[in-house]
Design brief:
Blueprint lengths: L1 H22 L4 E8 L7 H11 L3 E4 L9 E10 L2 E10 L4 E9 L2 H16 L6 H4 L33 H8 L2 E12 L7 E12 L8 E14 L5 E18 L6 E17 L9 E16 L7 E12 L4 E4 L4 E5 L3 E12 L2
Parallel strand pairs: 1-2, 1-3
Antiparallel strand pairs: 3-4, 4-5, 6-7, 6-15, 7-8, 8-9, 9-10, 10-11, 11-12, 12-15, 13-14
Helix pairs in contact: 2-3
């Protein structure tokens, strides 16, 4: 009787172990929530890195509310020239939780480390399957006395090392975005009446969420205005100028759809005055130079494709101040002041 009970208990134990092994899932359904600056790898790239480290992961839609699906939250943010990554993993069926924090001067290294941490949280054997398969026939093992057995590396040891030296590499690894824009400009003080014209621009910007970031633009302005006085003195003014602008300071809210920037611009060109009894009957060109300090408001995220709208208002300081006069009888018509106002509105597109 005792022998029969022992046999029955052994058989029951085997059945329970087999049923538990059959119930254990071969893949883990994971809901991924991922946020990062535009200079970092995107969500598709991060998924590919995790999947390359383990075959036991299956990413599901964020809307999937299956009770057995695990939750993986990864957020990367830029702070003071460094990238900080936070990872939180929760396995619903066993109520296991994992949290990790990684920081580096390179977002590429942060994303690489977080992908490995995520793979190890899902599958502790992640990254070892490929190393275990080899087509090379091993040589005969040495005698037991001569063997040196090295300890297996822990999961933490397989995480790439991140040092403060990466801060110096961040600039060279940053991504840049180009855009083109066309719009209207309105400038005062260069002529007796405001100059209304067309502005064309090309800009190249470093794509980062940092407050300080280089933004260089080249713009061409074509503007004109007319003047008529009661004594029939008539004149026309034409501005042709090329300017270079830099916006080193930019503030972007969490939505990333709106950006406020502070810019400095230098503009060089010529102002041509022509008209009846104005500074001689023929046309006359005057060299023009000025510096402009302006604020810029842009709506539209700096992605690899998309449109944006921009408005700028600036204070212009005139380096050249030409005077216009009537010859017979001699009378001053207009003298350019030291300060003026320069405004613009444009629409543009980011280049792929």
């Amino acid at each position: 009787m005792v022998c029969r009970l022992s046999s029955f208990a052994f058989a029951a134990t085997v059945v329970l172990i087999a049923s538990h092994a059959a119930a254990a899932p071969t893949t883990e359904n994971v809901r991924l929530h991922y946020t990062s600056p535009v200079a970092c790898p995107n969500e598709a790239e991060l998924r590919a890195r995790v999947s390359s480290l383990t075959a036991k992961v299956s990413f599901v839609s964020k809307d999937n509310r299956a009770p057995d699906a695990a939750s993986l939250d990864i957020a990367i943010a830029e702070s003071e020239g460094r990238y900080v990554g936070n990872l939180s993993f929760h396995r619903a069926r066993t109520d296991e939780a994992t949290e990790r924090h990684v920081a580096s001067g390179s977002c590429e290294h942060v994303a690489q480390a977080l992908a490995l941490i995520a793979a190890l949280a899902i599958d502790p054997e992640a990254g070892t399957e490929a190393a275990a398969v080899t087509s090379v026939v091993p040589a005969a093992p040495p005698p037991v006395a001569d063997r040196v057995v090295a300890p297996a590396p822990s999961p933490a040891a397989r995480i790439p090392a991140i040092s403060s030296v990466d801060r110096d590499r961040a600039t060279s690894q940053a991504r840049y975005q180009s855009d083109v824009a066309v719009g209207a400009s309105l400038a005062t003080a260069q002529a007796p009446s405001a100059l209304l014209g067309v502005r064309l621009g090309y800009a190249r910007t470093r794509t980062t969420d940092a407050v300080l970031r280089p933004d260089v633009a080249v713009m061409l302005d074509l503007a004109s205005s007319g003047m008529t006085e009661a004594d029939t003195t008539q004149g026309r003014f034409l501005l042709i100028a090329l300017s270079a602008r830099s916006c080193p300071i930019a503030l972007r809210p969490d939505t990333r759809a709106l950006e406020v920037g502070l810019c400095a611009r230098a503009r060089l060109g010529t102002v041509r005055a022509s008209g009846r009894e104005l500074d001689r009957p023929e046309s006359r060109g005057v060299f023009w130079a000025e510096g402009i300090l302006e604020g810029r408001l842009r709506a539209g995220a700096p992605s690899h494709k998309g449109l944006f709208a921009e408005v700028s208002v600036g204070l212009a300081v005139h380096a050249t101040r030409p005077s216009y006069y009537r010859e017979v009888p001699f009378r001053s018509v207009y003298e350019v002041p030291w300060l003026g106002l320069d405004t613009g509105a444009s629409f543009g597109a980011y280049l792929p």
